[in-house]
Structures are given as C-alpha cells and as structure tokens.
C-alpha cells in the first residue's frame, strides 16, 4: 500500500487511525493540501468518528491553513460542543481555551471568534482572565465593532458581584455610549452605590439633550433623583439635597407637593425633625393648588402623629416618667391638635393664593375666624386692599358692606360710616356695585333711625352732573354714571315715600321719568302713590307718560292698571274718554295680549253704553284676538247675543265662527249650531249644517260626528234623508281616499313590488272603511235597502267580473221615484227639504255661502 505509507510519512507526528474509506480523502488532501473545500469534505466524512479523530483532522487542516476563518470557526464551535456541561474545573475546558487562544493569533480581527471565546469563558468564573480577555478584544477590534462586545461585557458585570470593576468598566462604556447612562444608574443602585448613582442621575437631569431609552421624561428622572436622595440621606453625601430639591420646586411647579414631601422626608430620615417641621410649614404656606396642599398636609399630619406615637412609646418603656416627658408629650399633642384645627384656614389660604381676587373665599375666611374681632378686621383690611375691582371674581362691594356691618354690629357706627365712605370711592367695574354700596349705607342709617341722613345720602348720590354722560359709556368712571342707576333711584323713591314729603317724592319720580330710566313698575308705583294722596288726574297723567315711554308688550301692565283705575274712578261718567283710551290701547296691542282689553271694553259698554256698541266690540274682538283665543271669544259673543237679542240672532255669529275658526273648532261650532237649530225646531236648517260640516269630517277620524248625524236622522229624518246622509258619507270618504291616493302616488318608490304592496294596502283600507259604514248602518236596524236581487243580475255581474254586495244601495232608484217620494215626504216631518238636497251637487253643499244663503232667505219666515 504505497499511498498509505506516503500519508504516514507526511504525518509522522500525528497518531492517525485510518481505514480504507479514508484513502480517497487522504489522496485528495495530498494533491490539494491548501484547499479548504477538500479539508471540509474530509471533516464531513469523519463527523461520526470519535472526537479525537475529528479533532486530529481539524488540527492537520489548521496546520496547513492557519488563516482559514471557516476552519477555525467550525473547529472552535465543535470543541465548545464537546465540553458542554463539563465542570468548570475540568482540564478539557482549558484545552478549549488554549484552542481559542491559538486561533486568536491569526483571527484577532474577527469579532465572531472573540464573541465565541468571550461567551465561552464567561461561565468559567475566572474573573481576571475574563476581564483581560474582554480588554484584549476591545483593543484588537476596531471601534466600529465594539458594540458587539460591550453587551457581553455588561452581562459579565451583572453576573458577578464585582462592583469596583463594574464602575470602571461602565465609565469606559459611557464614553462610547452616553445614552446608556440609565443602565449605569441601575447598576449602581443594584450594587448599593447610591452616592455614585445620585451623581450620575444628577448629570442626566442636568443634560437637556439626554433622551431616555425607556421613554422617561426629564420630569420622571427628576422624581427618581428626589426619591433616591431623600430616602437615603446617610448614603448620598456628595450632593446638596436641599438645593437640588428646591431647584426642582422652581422648575416643576406642577409637582410641588411631591417635591416638598421629598425634602421633608430627607430631613426626617436624617433625624432633623425640627427642620422637617419647618419644611412642612413652608410648603403649606407656599403651595397654590388644593392637590399639592392635600399631599403636604397629609404627610405633615402623619409625621406629627408618628412623632407623638413614638414619643409616647419611648416614655412608656421607661420605669419612671419624668415631668419633662409629660411636658414634651403635651407639647407635641397640642402641636398636632393645632395643626388639625388650622386645616380649613390653611386650605382657604391656598385658594386665595391661587386667586387672591376671589371675593367669596375672603368671606369664607372671615367665617373661619368667627369670634376673633382683631383677626376679622385684619382679614377685611387685607381683602379690600388686595382685591382689584377689574379682576374680582364676585361682587367686591360685598367686602366693603360686610366690613362696615361688622363695625355696626360692634356699635362702632363712625367706623362703619368711614368704611362706607371709602367704599363709595372705589373704581368698581359696574355701576350697580357702587349703587349697592350707597344703598347699604342708607339702610344702615335707617337701622340707626337717622332718616334724614339716609335721605341726604340718596340726594348726594343722585346729583345729576352738568355734562351729559351716557350710562353705558365705560370710559367714564362709575361715580360719573351713578346718577342713572335705577337701583339707586328706586330706593330714593321708597325713602321719600316713607320719610319725605309729597312734593319731594313727586319730584323724585318726575326726575326718574325725565332721565328715562324708569320701568313699567316704577310708573305703576308712581300712579298708586298719587292715588293714595287723592291726585287722580296726576296719576292718570303719570300712566300716560309711561305709555309714551314704552312699547308693547312692556306697556301691557301700565295699560291694564290705567284702564282698571280709570273705570273704577269714573265708571260711565266719562264714557267717551274711556272709549278713546280703549281705542288707543287696542290700536297697537298684539293679538296675544288684546283679549283682556276687549273683555274690559265690552264690560264697559255693557254697563254704561249701548247694546250695539257691545256687539260691535265683540265683533271686533273675534277678529282681533289670536287664533287660540278665538273659540272662547266666539262663545262669549254668542252668549251675549243670545242674552240680548235672542237665540235666532246668533245664526250670523255661528256662520262667521265656522268660516274663521280652525277645522277642529269649526266642527265643534257646526255641531253646536245644528243642536241650536234642532232645539228651535228647524230640522231642515240643522240638516243643511250637518251636510256642510260633513265636508271637513273624515269618517275614519270623526266618527262621533257621523254618529250624531245618524242619530239625528233616525229621530227626525226619513228613508230619503238617511239615504242622502249615507251617500254624502261615501262621497266624503271617497274624496279623502282620493287625496290619500294622490299623495301616495307622489311618493317615489324604489321597486314595483313596493308600489303594488301600497296599492293592496290602500284597497284593503277602502274596503274596510266601506264595510264599517255599512255595519254601523245595519246595527241600527234600519232596513232601507232592497231585500232581494234577481239571480240573473247576479250571474250577469259575475260574468262581467264585478263584485256583488247584497247590502248595496241602488242610488238610481231615486230617479224613478221622484214624484212618489215628493208626495210621501210632504206628509213627514222635515221631508220637504230632501228633494232640494238631491238636486244640489255635493261640491256646492261644501260652500258656506250656498248653504247658509237659503237659511238667511227664510229667516224672517221662521221668526
């Protein structure tokens, strides 16, 4: 075997285990000793051999090709796989380490080889060797590939407790990746190096360009710093905690409560309890929101409670309790109680710091110090000096008024007057506020029985300036516009009525009217004042002045009072003057308000005028009132006409009502009209009225009307009149159905199916209504319909395809029996009118002039 001997000669230093299958691969290697492909093919052939054999093949290949990355990479991965699960003290691990070291002689620029080596050696607990290997890797590889090594390095630091090494390594790492400073902080906190962590976190917070990898804002990082340094005062020594937190207070104003609590907590944990108490007091006096106050106050109260509990616990453990201990307990208990008592006052201070111009909060503050006069005076003084009228939330004049009332309650009237005098000089934003201050001052003088002083104050406040000033001109001061304040003048008038003379009070009312600032109520009050002093004509002139000043509907109350007072004063003595007043009132009065004036006018004419004037007023009233009042007015008109002229004279009124009223009310009026005619025995007239009303009565809706007409025909009609009523009913129903069909035809449909369905529903509705009408007729046991039909007619109808109805009324038979019906109808009650109705078309019967024309023509005969 010459080939085998040749292979053994070339590999004398390697102990080979060759067989016949290996000879082809050995021959290829002899011919291509520097071919990686052939060596890999040989390795793949020996993959099921023992690890020593395959390792020998790799060693032979690497001896020939020491610079082959593929051979080294596969060989090292194979060696790592062979020692997987071995003990860290096993010698085979060191052999693998030596293999990695040999590979790095040639592969030191290959990051993947370094990664394999470092990940393998990290688990062997050889700290110094691992650290040196990482350092060698970082030195060997270019900087652009360090990002592949550092994660393994940091993982190695977290795996072993080597804080000193870790700090130095992280400092080197942050020079390359400063954005990972948060990981360094977490590492320091984990290893209890809180001072270094606080320093690093402070640097992060100060860096405005820092972007957190975890999405934290600068504010969140600041809160972490405050929490770290406040809870570890004994470990964070290199930072000025007080300065850091106070800078946060100036910077983050939306988290003041949390930051103040952190600062106080720092001093509590440091054992400086008095300093912590000062911090809490400072926080309570400086926060501006209720949320921050609640956080600080709750922490403060908890601190005082725990401090008291701790002291009592320590004293309880002593065998002998001293006097100093009792004093200390009482002191802390009093301090805690004082804090709880001050809560509402402190909360009010927070609200006032939030908005010092809130008037209501100042009033609330005064209530908190009730029973402490000096404190209340200080609060009121501070309030009137702090609140600016232009920025005030609420009515600032109430502060001045309550301040003066406080002095008044304590019998310091001069001081109260001084406060009121200053209150009248304040530049309020509204004239009403200044007027209210003057009015309160005058009321105080009244309570002190100084009526003359009150009148003098009102006179002083209402002095009219020489120059003309508009009340709405905000460029002028409120003091210059005060003379047009209605509130002030109203009180002045009340005071003059109570304590002044007649002339002075009248002068005040006249000045109010001259300034054109009066209201309808002022005019009414003026008129009543003049009436009380028996100046009736002066009162009427006052009412007329008010009527000239105001328009409808504001003048309604004045007219109502004026007319009522005038009628009660003169009655019918000045009838023409009263009529002129009513005509003037009604001329421009809106329809919704004129009803009461028409009734009053009619009452006047009824009591003192002529009957025709009364009817004239009611005639105008039914046309002048609004539609909702028209029905009631017609009822009054009919009632008065019946009382004065008798029932027959109400017919024209009924006719007019039927024409003017809405359809619903017109139907009611028609029924009443028919009842009246029936009561008078005018059956034909009643029937014509029913016929006219039927044109606006849909049988599907107004069944009561048709039932009334049917009962009327049963009692007073005959076969012809009943037949005519049924014919009219069918005609009206057909008319309404035609209207519905026309409306339905105008509605667009999407498909032919919908159209046919609508037609089917309409046909069923028409058939149902027709059957209902026949059923209602048959239910009354009135058998006016022919009782038999010839069979030939039935067969004929079936052949023609028409529907046969056995209850159908043959209208055509009326033409054959006209003469006979005329003779029979002449002997029956009301029968003479039926022939005329047959000859009148249904359309003409719906026209009121045609129907009621015949009634008017025979009216004289009936009377």
TrEMBL record:
Domain (Pre-mRNA-splicing factor SYF1 central HAT repeats): residue spans on this chain: 182-387
Cellular-component GO terms for this entry: post-mRNA release spliceosomal complex; Prp19 complex; U2-type catalytic step 2 spliceosome
Region (Disordered): 796-863
Annotated signal peptide: none
Alphabetic keyword roster: mRNA processing, mRNA splicing, Nucleus, Repeat, Spliceosome
Domain Pre-mRNA-splicing factor Syf1/CRNKL1-like C-terminal HAT-repeats, residue spans: 389-767
Listed name of the protein: Pre-mRNA-splicing factor SYF1
Family: Belongs to the crooked-neck family.
């Amino acid at each position: 075997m010459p080939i085998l001997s040749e292979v053994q000669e070339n590999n004398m230093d390697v102990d080979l285990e060759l067989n016949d299958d290996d000879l082809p691969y050995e021959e290829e290697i002899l011919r291509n000793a520097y071919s990686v492909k052939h060596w890999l093919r040989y390795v793949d052939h020996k993959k099921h051999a023992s690890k020593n054999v395959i390792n020998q093949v790799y060693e032979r290949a690497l001896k020939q090709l020491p610079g082959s990355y593929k051979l080294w990479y596969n060989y090292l991965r194979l060696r790592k796989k062979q020692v997987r699960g071995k003990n860290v003290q096993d010698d085979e691990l060191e052999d693998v380490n030596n293999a990695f070291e040999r590979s790095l002689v040639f592969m030191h620029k290959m990051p993947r080889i370094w990664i394999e080596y470092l990940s393998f050696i990290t688990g062997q607990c050889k700290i110094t060797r691992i650290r040196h290997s990482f350092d060698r890797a970082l030195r060997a590889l270019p900087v652009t590939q360090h990002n592949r090594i550092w994660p393994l390095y940091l993982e190695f630091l977290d795996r072993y407790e080597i804080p000193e090494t870790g700090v130095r390594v992280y400092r080197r790492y942050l020079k390359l990746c400063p954005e990972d400073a948060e990981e360094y902080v977490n590492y320091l906190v984990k290893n209890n190096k809180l001072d270094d962590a606080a320093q690093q976190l402070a640097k992060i917070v100060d860096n405005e360009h820092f972007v957190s990898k975890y999405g934290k804002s600068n504010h969140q990082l600041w809160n972490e710093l405050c929490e770290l340094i406040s809870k570890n005062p004994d470990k964070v020594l290199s930072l000025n905690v007080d300065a850091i937190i106070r800078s946060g207070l100036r910077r983050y104003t939306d988290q003041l409560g949390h930051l103040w609590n952190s600062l106080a907590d720092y001093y509590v944990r440091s054992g400086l309890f008095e300093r912590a108490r000062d911090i809490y007091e400072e926080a309570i006096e400086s926060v501006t929101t209720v949320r921050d106050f609640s956080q600080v106050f709750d922490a403060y109260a908890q601190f005082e409670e725990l401090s008291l509990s701790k002291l009592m616990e320590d004293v309880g453990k002593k065998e002998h309790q001293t006097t100093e201990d009792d004093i200390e307990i009482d002191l802390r208990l009093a301090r805690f109680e004082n804090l709880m008592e001050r809560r509402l006052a402190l909360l009010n201070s927070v609200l006032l710091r939030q908005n010092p111009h809130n008037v209501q909060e100042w009033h609330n503050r005064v209530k908190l110090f009730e029973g402490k006069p000096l404190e209340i005076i200080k609060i009121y003084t501070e309030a009137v000096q702090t609140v600016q009228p232009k920025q005030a939330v609420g009515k600032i004049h109430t502060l001045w008024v309550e301040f003066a009332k406080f002095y008044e309650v304590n019998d310091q009237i001069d001081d109260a007057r001084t406060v009121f005098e200053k209150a009248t000089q304040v530049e309020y934003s509204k004239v009403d506020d200044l007027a209210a201050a003057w009015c309160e001052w005058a009321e105080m003088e009244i309570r002190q029985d100084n009526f003359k002083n009150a009148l003098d104050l009102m006179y002083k406040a209402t002095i009219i300036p020489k120059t003309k000033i508009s009340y709405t001109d905000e460029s002028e001061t409120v003091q210059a516009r005060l003379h047009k304040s209605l509130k002030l003048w109203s009180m002045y008038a009340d005071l003059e009525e109570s304590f002044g003379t007649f002339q002075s009070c009248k002068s005040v009312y006249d000045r109010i009217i001259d300034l054109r600032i009066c209201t309808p109520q002022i005019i009414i009050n003026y008129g009543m004042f003049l009436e009380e002093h028996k100046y009736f004509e002066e009162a009427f002139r006052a009412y007329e002045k008010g009527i000239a000043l105001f328009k409808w509907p504001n003048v309604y109350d004045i007219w109502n009072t004026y007319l009522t007072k005038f009628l009660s004063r003169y009655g019918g003595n000045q009838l023409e003057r009263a009529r002129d007043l009513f005509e003037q009132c009604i001329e421009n009065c809106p329809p919704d308000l004129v009803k009461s004036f028409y009734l009053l006018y009619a009452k006047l004419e009824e009591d003192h005028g002529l009957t025709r004037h009364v009817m004239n007023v009611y005639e105008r009233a039914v046309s002048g009132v609004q539609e909702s009042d028209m029905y009631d007015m017609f009822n009054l008109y009919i009632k008065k006409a019946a009382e004065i002229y008798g029932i027959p004279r109400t017919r024209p009124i009924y006719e007019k009502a039927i024409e003017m009223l809405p359809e619903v009310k017109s139907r009611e009026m028609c029924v009443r009209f028919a009842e009246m005619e029936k009561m008078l025995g005018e059956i034909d007239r009643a029937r014509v009225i029913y016929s006219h009303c039927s044109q606006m009565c849909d049988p599907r809706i107004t069944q009561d009307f048709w039932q009334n007409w049917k009962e009327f025909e049963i009692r007073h009609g005959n076969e012809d009149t009943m037949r005519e009523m049924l014919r009219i009913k069918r005609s009206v129903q057909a008319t309404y159905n035609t209207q519905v069909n026309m409306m339905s035809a105008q509605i667009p449909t999407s498909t032919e199916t919908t159209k046919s369905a609508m037609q089917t529903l309409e046909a069923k509705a028409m058939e149902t209504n027709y059957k209902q009408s026949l059923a209602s007729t048959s239910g009354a046991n009135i058998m006016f319909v022919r009782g038999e039909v010839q069979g030939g007619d039935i067969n004929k109808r079936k052949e023609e395809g028409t529907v046969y109805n056995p209850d159908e009324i043959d209208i055509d038979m009326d033409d054959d029996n006209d003469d006979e019906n005329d003779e029979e109808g002449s002997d029956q009650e009301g029968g003479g009118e039926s022939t005329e109705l047959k000859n009148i078309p249904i359309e003409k019967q719906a026209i009121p002039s045609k129907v009621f024309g015949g009634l008017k023509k025979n009216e004289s005969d009936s009377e």
